[in-house]
Description:
The chain contains twelve helices and five strands. It is mostly helical. The chain has one domain: Undecaprenyl pyrophosphate synthetase. The protein has a three-stranded parallel beta sheet with strand order 1-3-2, sandwiched between helices. Strands 4-5 form a two-stranded parallel sheet. The longest helix is centred in the first third of the chain and has 24 residues, at 56-79. The radius of gyration is 24 Å and the shape is globular.
Amino acid sequence: MDGNGRWAGKRSLKRFLGHQQGAESVQFVVETASRINLPFLTLYAFSLENNLRRPKSEVNFLMRLLRSYLVSNVKRMNDNNVRMEYIGRIQELPSEVQDTMQWASEATARNSGTTLTLALNYGSRSEIVDAVRSILTGLVAEAHQRGCSLEDLIQVDGLESRLDEHHICDHLYTAHMPDPDLVIRTSGEQRISNFLLWQIAYSEIFITDRLWPDFRGIHLLEAIQAYQKRERRFGGLGETFTDEDLDQLEPACQVAEEIATELTPNQLTPR
């Protein structure tokens, strides 16, 4: 959801009007996701860095805008069978914002369509830190219950059985969700910005120059269409690659000779 401020700046408007327009885009996209039965949609609405580095007045406005959005759109979410959830350090948000978030979540809890997850006060590095802290806290509690030290507990069971990828996944904010298939980055930015770093290891990325306030349901469909044309290999060779293709590859020694011949010192670019 990037580009609200730039959208307003291009029109000589104040930043808060860009945020308001961005909130309207959310509902257009959510309703489209619901109509095509998209099971999960996660929006990076407010980062941990936003909370720490943006002016206090802007942060306060964004909190009021969040409450207003939830109150105004819960009925539309229910009409579209959309369920509300959140990820992030929610406990650090203002109490009145947390109350409204919980109300919206409870009001849509029985819906079985698209799950709309808002990432609020969210940072992926912090999420991973919180996951590891949670694992360690559980291990310490178990060691105490069994009357042994943490070191003894790990020695008996083995560290590998106590800490692996599955353990970390189970303690992330997104433990109840599948990893995303597609990441859409608006406003032409070509960076991840601390978003779901663990979960998007094999996600496809779609970048559009369109600013978030101009993003609509049709643009979501365009991104999905582009995604459907891609071949996902997850580190493998892909369905179209066969043993016959391997036979046609140049020998490694021949490739090495070509590289050594072509990359002479005169061709190297100095740093």
